[in-house]
Design goal:
Strands 1, 2, 3, 4, 5, 6 and 7 form a 7-stranded mixed sheet that branches. The protein is built from 13 helices and 9 strands. The radius of gyration is 60 Å and the shape is flat. Helix 2 runs parallel beside helix 8. The protein is α/β, with parallel strands linked by helices and 450 residues long. Among the domains are: 207 residues, Rossmann fold (3-Layer(aba) Sandwich), CATH 3.40.50.10130; 80 residues, DNA polymerase, domain 1 (Orthogonal Bundle), CATH 1.10.150. This is Crossover junction endonuclease EME1 isoform X1.
């Protein structure tokens, strides 16, 4: 192969066949100058660098790095899951705490409501007529100890079973009242507090009364009392004036008698006359004018009392009236809130009906007696045929207008028992009124002129 035949080609201008040189020589190196044909050199396999061989340690490092990545990812997942769990636990704890606080608040609210209801029930019980006197206390001024009837007055108050207390007050010789009530506020429930009533009684004996009437300071003194005790309902009690007037009346009679007999002896003086003689002389008319003036101008009631028994009775009556006042006011408000109108005399001619129905017949009889032409025997005659209002209403339901108006007119009425008893009928007038009363739907219709 080394002695290869080399063929030389040459180009001439003529078209002759070129000569072929068949000499044996090495071919010349190719020199290609065109840059478009410059290809990169490709090394042979022998010239390639040796391939990097990985050992077990290197492969372990590779696997270790992958494990680290997985560990980091796992830790990150576990961390996020832990944080999520902690958040859920914190939220659950907050919910439990809020639930516990809400339960505690509801328990406190329920306890407060129960306490308020218990206080209201106790307060309502304390207003009952049978219980209210136990919560009242009478306050007497220390000036009563200077009266000669003080011991008798205390005895009278004890007989009325009144709780009293001696205490110095702004107005001398005055009587006031306090009431024990349950405390009930936003922060405090229970306990007892003392509430002063707005009524006051001022007691003047005959000495003070006569001096004020004679000096024309009677009305001014009452005005000063009301000014110093604003909001108080004042009642004036004048004690012992009748003895004063009796003394001057007897003295005047004695003077007339001595004048007629021609004797000017003063006569035997009675016990206690010295105290009356040292006082100015006033007439009963002057005193009555002063009492009327304070009543009209100052709205001050007055009363003349002549004995310790009478004074103790007045104090006892005032105490009872003041104690029962809240219950009566509460009852009136309840009636006004439930009904558009109510009978003012609700405790007059009333009929008690128990849970067993006892008293219903008496109530039906009382209802019939409200008509002008109906008396007890008339009501009994109607009840003998129609024992209840429903029986009468059923009878009216099966009647025409004319029949209903005449339904009761022929019922006989017996006034007394016996063979010669007069019998009369109910009559058409009362029968018509009863029919209109129980069947009319017009509330403004008039039953009659009677």
């Amino acid at each position: 192969m080394d002695n290869m035949d080399v063929i030389e080609l040459s180009s001439d201008s003529n078209d002759s066949v070129p000569s072929v040189n068949t000499s044996s020589s090495k071919p010349p190196a190719l020199h290609i100058l065109d840059d478009d044909y410059n290809f990169p050199e490709v090394p042979f396999a022998s010239e390639l660098p040796a391939a990097k061989k990985y050992t077990d340690s290197d492969s372990g490092a590779i696997f270790k790095s992958n494990s680290d990545i997985e560990t980091e990812l796992f830790k990150k997942y576990i961390g996020e899951k832990s944080r999520s769990k902690e958040t859920v636990n914190a939220s659950s704890k907050n919910d439990k705490e809020l639930t516990r606080i809400e339960k505690y608040r509801k328990a406190e609210e329920a306890a407060r409501i129960r306490a308020e209801k218990a206080a209201a029930a106790a307060r309502l019980k304390s207003m009952q007529p049978g219980e209210c006197m136990n919560y009242m206390q009478v306050i007497l001024d220390l000036g009563f100890m200077n009266f000669n009837f003080f011991d008798t007055l205390i005895t009278e108050l004890q007989q009325y079973e009144l709780v009293y207390k001696l205490k110095s007050q702004i107005i001398s010789n005055s009587v006031t009242w306090t009431r024990s009530e349950e405390k009930n506020s936003e922060h405090v429930t229970g306990g007892i507090k003392s509430v002063e009533d707005n009524h006051i009684i001022v007691v003047w004996d005959y000495t003070e009364t006569v001096k004020k009437v004679a000096s024309d300071t009677f009305v001014t003194s009452i005005d000063n009392i009301q000014t110093s005790m604003p909001g108080k309902v004042t009642t004036l009690i004048v004690y012992g004036m009748e003895n004063y007037f009796r003394h001057h009346r007897n003295l005047k009679k004695m003077q007339v008698k001595n004048l007629c007999l021609g004797s000017f002896r003063d006569g035997k003086k009675r016990r206690g006359s010295k105290a009356f003689e040292d006082l100015p002389v006033i007439s009963r008319k002057q005193l009555e004018l002063c009492l009327i003036e304070v009543q009209l101008t100052l709205n001050c009631n007055s009363q003349l009392i002549e004995s310790p028994h009478g004074l103790g009775q007045v104090i006892g009556q005032y105490t009872k009236a003041i104690a029962e006042a809240p219950f009566k006011i509460h009852k009136k408000q309840m009636l006004q809130s439930q009904l558009d109108f109510y009978a003012a005399g609700d405790n007059k001619d009333t009929v008690k009906v128990d849970k067993d129905g006892n008293g219903l017949k008496r109530l039906w009889q009382q209802q019939l007696c409200q008509f002008n032409l109906a008396r007890l025997e008339t009501a009994e005659a109607i009840i003998s045929k129609y024992p209840t209002p429903s029986h009468l209403m059923d009878a009216y339901a099966h009647c025409t207008l004319s029949e209903g108006m005449k339904l009761l007119q022929d019922i006989p009425i017996r006034r007394t028992a016996g063979p010669i008893t007069n019998v009369r009928r109910i009559g058409p007038e009362l029968s018509k009124k009863l029919y209109l009363m129980f069947t009319s739907e017009d509330g403004n219709i008039l039953l009659g002129n009677d």
